[in-house]
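Please check this today:
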Amino acid sequence: MQNKQRQLKRFFYHVRHEYVTMNNMVLVIAAVIAVSWAWASVQAVQRNYQLQSQIDDKKRQEQLVELQTENLKFEQHYYQSDEYLTLEAKRRLGLAEPGEKLLILPANSAAVKQESAQEDMSSVVATTTPPPPPLQQWLGFLFSPKQQN
């Protein structure tokens, strides 16, 4: 039993005088400071990335709203134009300009069915365009030029 205690005391003495030195303590403290600094840097980069992505989202939303506003202005100008008034008068009231003749087709005629089918197909094609594949999306994200405002 005393032999084990003696070996244990020798081990602690050896560890204390070989490994727990001032130089080793300074190295451990420096390593802890370096690791904490690196961790803080990684967190700052991550936070900046998140904030930049939020800024990019807001800029895209702003551009979308500007485009919608521009589109509405164009629609407003169109609705105020004489061309629109003429077309609406022709459509709603059945009026025609001098020299024009009005042709009213029955609802079940082939021309009316074909026109409605074309309108349906154009709306389906416009709404079902698939997104690009993921690789192409990533390449666009990584290598597309940033827009400057």
About this structure: The first helix runs from residue 2 to 18. The chain is about 75% helix and 0% strand. The chain has a mean pLDDT of 83.
